[in-house]
């Protein structure tokens, strides 16, 4: 038998090294290399065979029913849309998002809605005291007798609260603040996060109680902690929004019980956070008369079609290097569209400052907005406004062609529902033909 030797391995990717380093040489993550005992390659391991007891034996899938794991609505329509209809008993849900975006406010509202239905809810926070949570609950109207609060950072104590309260829903804010005295390391470390999440998920599965975990994010926006955390949970939701605006979006990155392409829309107000079932008019301007440099498009947020107005401004540049300023759109795609306009459509832009922005702070990342951006720029150059009832969507190629985009029928239907009678899309042909179709 080979003698076990001391080694170090990355908790994220499994990379091994003979000495400790602060940064993993494979995945380049900091603080993930930990010491562990590793046996030689010739070490033989055996696993004892355990016969499952009564009620735990394997059964044919046709004899099983899914009645016990049906979705239960939370009372918040947009949250139910993202989760696939509500929470599933025994499910582990991970909420992530930037600090201050409104994760705790949304979950406290969800806890209050569940308490209104007569269910016992446990809200365990390691970041705020119970008094601070009550102040927020008073402001948002989330005071109920069956909503229990606990301010704890010890894992064993939180598990004890779950046993004592016997809740129908558990919310832990956040998983990086809890620690187990059985594991070495500071709270928030990879080993602590792994143990805390595994213990809470195990309790949720055994009791059939859904648990919602709040997770911190890193500088690049990913969930902090080991990647294993996202594999352990059943649903991963990301709450995003710009602090300059009150609009918030909830997206699913993983969902074992529903679709992953749904998006929930919320608005942050003085009395908490409220859902926006129909955000169609949030990203359109309210100008009484048509203004040059504006064009409406239809973007897809998950399965939802959202009309968005793109605005462009073109002015004579006073510097040798004209400015290209964008807000809410991809700068590289705007630069490509400007090159196509100058080369294929004869627009003179090399000595012009170009500013492109969206209304309402929404971000357009899909290429379907190319045609609307191009028409808005041409409208700004010619100082000729587009008709109020015109909407455009389509991808522009380097050859000047307008390509079709996904969900074109749904986009056109949503545009017509909102009163846009003229649709400019891939059916227009080339960029020059689309410009003439738009009346420019």
Question: Could you outline the blueprint of secondary structure elements for this entry?
Answer:
Blueprint: E1 5-10, E2 16-17, E3 33-38, H1 77-83, E4 92-97, H2 103-116, E5 121-125, H3 130-140, E6 147-151, H4 155-165, E7 169-173, H5 190-207, E8 211-215, H6 228-232, E9 235-241, E10 247-255, E11 263-269, E12 272-275, E13 294-301, E14 304-316, E15 324-327, H7 331-344, E16 352-358, H8 370-382, E17 390-392, E18 395-396, E19 402-403, H9 408-417, E20 422-424, H10 431-437
Parallel strand pairs: 4-8, 4-9, 5-6, 5-7, 7-8, 15-16, 17-20
Antiparallel strand pairs: 1-2, 1-3, 9-10, 10-11, 11-12, 13-14, 14-16, 18-19
Helix pairs in contact: 7-8
